[in-house]
Amino acid sequence: MTAFDPGFSTAAMTRLFSAGARVSAMCNFEAALAGAQADAGLIPARAAAEIEDVCAAPVADAESLLAAGWVTGTPVAALLESLRADLSPEAGGAIHCGATTQDVVDSALMTQIRDGLDLLDAGIVKVAAALRFLAAEHRLTPMVGRTFLQHAEPTTFGLRAALWLEPLLRQLAGLRGRRASLPVQLGGPVGNRTALGEQAAVVTAGVAKRLGLVVPVVPWHTDRSHLLEVVTLVDRVAGSAGKIGADLVQLSQSEVGEIRTRSGKSSSMPGKRNPIDSIRAVAAAQACGAVARVVTAAPPHQLERGVGSWHAEWFAVPLVFQTAGAAVEAIGLAAGSIEVDEARMAANLGVAAEPAMLAAAGALVDRVLAATDAAGVK
Amino acid sequence: MTAFDPGFSTAAMTRLFSAGARVSAMCNFEAALAGAQADAGLIPARAAAEIEDVCAAPVADAESLLAAGWVTGTPVAALLESLRADLSPEAGGAIHCGATTQDVVDSALMTQIRDGLDLLDAGIVKVAAALRFLAAEHRLTPMVGRTFLQHAEPTTFGLRAALWLEPLLRQLAGLRGRRASLPVQLGGPVGNRTALGEQAAVVTAGVAKRLGLVVPVVPWHTDRSHLLEVVTLVDRVAGSAGKIGADLVQLSQSEVGEIRTRSGKSSSMPGKRNPIDSIRAVAAAQACGAVARVVTAAPPHQLERGVGSWHAEWFAVPLVFQTAGAAVEAIGLAAGSIEVDEARMAANLGVAAEPAMLAAAGALVDRVLAATDAAGVK
Amino acid sequence: MTAFDPGFSTAAMTRLFSAGARVSAMCNFEAALAGAQADAGLIPARAAAEIEDVCAAPVADAESLLAAGWVTGTPVAALLESLRADLSPEAGGAIHCGATTQDVVDSALMTQIRDGLDLLDAGIVKVAAALRFLAAEHRLTPMVGRTFLQHAEPTTFGLRAALWLEPLLRQLAGLRGRRASLPVQLGGPVGNRTALGEQAAVVTAGVAKRLGLVVPVVPWHTDRSHLLEVVTLVDRVAGSAGKIGADLVQLSQSEVGEIRTRSGKSSSMPGKRNPIDSIRAVAAAQACGAVARVVTAAPPHQLERGVGSWHAEWFAVPLVFQTAGAAVEAIGLAAGSIEVDEARMAANLGVAAEPAMLAAAGALVDRVLAATDAAGVK
Amino acid sequence: MTAFDPGFSTAAMTRLFSAGARVSAMCNFEAALAGAQADAGLIPARAAAEIEDVCAAPVADAESLLAAGWVTGTPVAALLESLRADLSPEAGGAIHCGATTQDVVDSALMTQIRDGLDLLDAGIVKVAAALRFLAAEHRLTPMVGRTFLQHAEPTTFGLRAALWLEPLLRQLAGLRGRRASLPVQLGGPVGNRTALGEQAAVVTAGVAKRLGLVVPVVPWHTDRSHLLEVVTLVDRVAGSAGKIGADLVQLSQSEVGEIRTRSGKSSSMPGKRNPIDSIRAVAAAQACGAVARVVTAAPPHQLERGVGSWHAEWFAVPLVFQTAGAAVEAIGLAAGSIEVDEARMAANLGVAAEPAMLAAAGALVDRVLAATDAAGVK
């Protein structure tokens, strides 16, 4: 049961940000911490092994556990209580040593983000491949360029597609770079790693390695810029999908009719073709932009822990990824179904395109195709 | 399964904005339309009765039905297909006559909003009652007033509580006024009610009456100001909850210690008291403010139907109510559990409060208490 | 010298929110306070008269005075220093008694807002009159209705104009109601009016009357909902202008060509007609929506005085009015210059409009015309 | 005359984004274009020299010229008319060849952004130097860490300062990287560089070099991600300033009193110390965040030119830089004036700090000091 229209997520993103997946990511952190501490000789290897086993089992009622966190004060207190019920006293005493709730929550979120970036990456590649095909296929297909929706000068549909594609390629590169540098959080109660003692650096490195994250210069408990950068990037991807969607709606409007996409039907007018995927991309991008700002425009996180600004991330980050995932999925469906009406383009243009214009547009298309090849998109 | 932390909704709001409840609200519209059309003699009474029966039964898989809308183009097309499977040909032909998807979706949303406002009303009354008690009880309890968090001059805790309460009373009045004037949507495919013929006004009034909504001057398919006003008002309620929460966190901080609320515990420091309900109110208010802007800052809805801006409401409005509900619930728990430390207040103030100050503060408290009585809050 | 493009304000709004006008509004508050206190017997009439005289004279370098406030801590401290240089010791001791900076700044802002609402009112009336003319003139002029920019069913251009007009009428009513209930701020250092003694209510009423404001139930130093309601309303007006502008751009696009407005020219293509006023309305509405949120989405104002959230209003409120003024001015220019191409409308529609449709549309137009008459718009 | 409170800009930023400076930046583009075209043999060298001369002279009334753009349709049409009045027919025919308004406006904006980034860079370095001093000086000065404003565990003030500093260093690096890659805009009327013919690449490179910008893969007329990235980065800098300011307000509040900064005075309470610079940083950061969203949350720019979304940048980008400049200036003043009360810190902490804690905090401080040295901040 979701509490908003299902068009604003995808099946995979909903799963990734479900209560179960979130609690599981928290368990993975506790297991990684125990493993790293055992390696450093801080807790017995036996205890670590036990913790890893218990943390690998799915938690029974993740939703209730998270809800309980709002009574006890933190989702981790509730989780630890549940885990310790299955642990020996020794392992129960060894779990979560030197860590604080924020370490668990932030690191778990980063691992979910990593998986979310992978889902987006696959979706973007699909969109990019569709646009690449159109850019190459229609490299020299003339159409009229429109500024302020007024006819301006001739251009080609291939260049239009290439101009949709190029920012996506830069965003894909940004997303991959970011994926490779997601920081672990490990600072203890006030972010100074005191409780990890002299082994702080070693343990932090061990946890990061186990979780596939990197070690930041310092804990980032109230510096949210790492998170903000990811969220901004994801919002930008959604924005690109929205731009493509908005343009597709314009180009497929009744009076223009230069392209057609997979179309939905009306509840009252059987013959009407509504560009439903493009509309969904536009809507999801708007939603993404709004929830992104919960993070990007958050009031400052106070001193050593944000009062509310931190917690609001638990609402916003999952929704940023779900809405962005929806926007990318939708624009992939739209882009993959574009039918180009070259005759209509020619008729709307009204004049013959000059060879010089075609050459100029084609040259720009080639630059984007080269960049696409360089990004490994086929 | 929700796709974000459960602290950002309440059980009742989650239910109200579930897929099932939404589809059910859509069915109620179709039933009301059929009933009104039968009354106007536009469709047979028998068909209307059949439609009302079928629409009263719960839809099997509401979530899938809504998801299917993103393929077929509208959630209503999918719903009608499902309903018609259970209707006679006559009733199947009579359902949805003269209406369009937007009529169903917008009117259904308005009825959900009505119920959401009732939930908020009950929550606000609870908060207001708790604050009223504090205002009266501590009418003359001296404490220091703080501007820019610096000690300024003496005031009373009763006045602080009264100043939290007063805007809530105005918002409660606004919310009740708004609840009484939520408009039905009924315009047909392009908002001119053509398909309803000469009976347009009669049918519209009939549908409105059946749904507990009012008849607007004109259809509002691309004038979203009715919706925007509700959303703004609800966001304002959440904002008031957030302000109270933020102040409670300040007043309960270690160095100030003038109040205590129901407290959560830390995962690492057993003795620590975290003002978890206040924090939740702050966080939920931030979330509400962001999603509200999907509606209040939406790009204009184009001509006779919004491209994406309309659909984004299906994401945002449910979340606005859920987050606002969470903020109100949380601040109710906080306000209802406030313990006042008068000795600490006196110690922080450091000087004796002058009778004139107490009288001035008390006079303002009395104005708010009178307003509270006028609002019927006990 | 403005620090942003002049298209985002109007001459009158820029003047109204200039440093000089702001300081002058602050002086008016000090004069009103002195007058009211003299009436209540709290300060000598002679001192009040002197204060009123000095406050009526323009301040030499208002910009520097406001800038100095960021060194001394408040713009009022700098202002008082400047005023006292021209006052006798008696009057110098009597000015600002029992008030605090926030009383001056907030009340002054409310008087600027009152004048800003008057400017908007005049602008809206102009737009409404233009739309009323179009609604009446084209009550039965057929055109195609477009949903998702796809041809849907026939409607009339008069109804399109009426649907632009109707929300403006409601907003005009809201704006007038709001103008009549703008609250004075008078609470003293911590908002309990202690320093005004037993005469607090009398003095507050006197200041309010002199400034043309009303007396609120309680001071609103950290309850910004009064301000938020005005800002929201003004943003909504800008939004309506933006919606009209966006639709005019769509209807005047090359392929549609159903209307023409006063047009700018291109720097590179002499024959091109850019709908510059509509574009300006869209842009100014976007700008307004963003700055409005400085107020509507402000973090809570702490305890007895906002830390930053209050000061940010000094940036945002002037810009909200300037951008809204620009949007209204621009859409007035656009709406007043609309040329309707009925032949093109008929051609795009392609079919003959049925009499029943025309009658239905006309009936709705009539409802809006009646509402327009009721609002006194000619 | 600014139209908002002067605390939300700095003298240098106001100058940089004045009408005169903007028109001057546009002239620089026309000069660079003429120079590059002469080098490519597209226009006579004599004409280019004449254009360069005329473009170097200040424009008489820049404000009126920009305002005129909202009548004629584009600021560039008005500018060209003014320039051509001073040019020979030959040069008048050679200026602006192959370019369109957006080329001029966007490229000019990028050069203003470059200078704005330099101003921010200098401001950040000043803040960073002050924080570096504090981090080193108080590397081992114990204080209590506060989470949710509740006492948690001991930390050091040097680490608090280092944690404020570290994100600024990353932002400084980001800002320098971005400064080195600001793209020129040169695409002609529809962004395909047709009018520049076979020399398009050469001319684009020439213009970029003259303006100190880089050549993008393709024109970015409706892909605003380049701009969005700069704006986001600048907003992030303002956000860091706001976080520091908010923390300084907390630490200097009456009950905590661990630090003092340069303080303003109250208009009503002589002894009160208001942390005015920190407050200004918080307020300016809030303002920056809001105006940044005009760009980052803009509705998609349509096809080959944004309708309003583009123009709104002319409002927002100058304000983003002005407010960010204000935030950085303010926090520089605050950070440079911090007096640390070690005795109060010790008293608030209440317990002796353990050597292991000091060592852990010191080790993290050292990591930040090393990063600071690497960034060349002294």
Secondary-structure topology with pairs:
The structure is a homotetramer of 378-residue chains.
Chain A: H1 11-16, H2 19-39, H3 45-56, H4 62-72, H5 75-84, H6 89-94, H7 101-137, E1 142-147, E2 150-156, H8 157-179, H9 200-211, H10 225-251, E3 259-260, H11 276-296, H12 312-335, E4 339-340, H13 342-349, H14 355-374
Antiparallel strand pairs in A: 1-2, 3-4
Describe it.
Four copies of one chain form a homotetramer. The first copy, chain A, has helices at residues 11-16, 19-39, 45-56, 62-72, 75-84, 89-94, 101-137, 157-179, 200-211, 225-251, 276-296, 312-335, 342-349, 355-374, and strands at 142-147, 150-156, 259-260, 339-340. With 378 residues, chain A is mainly α. A two-stranded antiparallel sheet of chain A has the order 1-2. In chain A, helix 7 (101-137) runs parallel beside helix 10 (225-251), helix 8 runs antiparallel to helix 10 (225-251) and helix 10 (225-251) runs parallel beside helix 12 (312-335). The model of chain A has no long low-confidence stretch (mean pLDDT 95). Chains in contact: A-B, A-C, A-D, B-C, B-D, C-D. Chains C and D meet through helix 4, helix 5, helix 10, helix 11 and helix 12 of C and helix 4, helix 5, helix 10, helix 11 and helix 12 of D.
